[in-house]
Amino acid sequence: MRLGFELDPRLAADTLPVGDGPLCRVLLMNDQRYPWVILVPRVAGVTELYQLTSAQQRQLLDESMRLGERLMAHFAGHKLNVAALGNVVAQLHVHHIVRYRDDAAWPAPVWGRHPPQPYGAEGAQARVAELRRLLDLG
């Protein structure tokens, strides 16, 4: 990992910290309508997947697959949306969103469909603790 990793301020403002995996910071999107977790490789200055080393690419894929499998099993979703857009926040980050056929945005993407519905303090604390247990992040 390159020294100097800092989380983009927009990501920090829109999410709740869950913990750190071997490569990625794990964040919960602060929108209670969806189980929505973001992986951010803790590598400074990276905006694209190809900028990671081969080992980091494999580690990101491993962390993403593990996260996706656990989210879908735990939340019993109909579809897992995985995306790394970077149009608003350039820092490389990968969204993992559990979707349901009856969710607020289905079948469209979640971006820009509805304003976020932030977790309340207790709900946020409970969901972060739930994810830490689910992902073995202590």
UniProtKB/TrEMBL annotation:
This is HIT family protein. GO terms for biological process: methylation. It comes from Sinimarinibacterium thermocellulolyticum. InterPro entries: HIT-like, HIT-like_sf, HIT_Hint. SUPFAM superfamilies: HIT-like. The keyword Methyltransferase applies. GO terms for molecular function: methyltransferase activity. The lineage of its organism: Bacteria, Pseudomonadati, Pseudomonadota, Gammaproteobacteria, Nevskiales. Pfam families: HIT. Residues 37-106 form the HIT domain. Keywords: Methyltransferase, Transferase. PROSITE patterns: HIT_2 (PS51084). Its EC number is 2.1.1.-. It is an enzyme of class 2 (transferase).
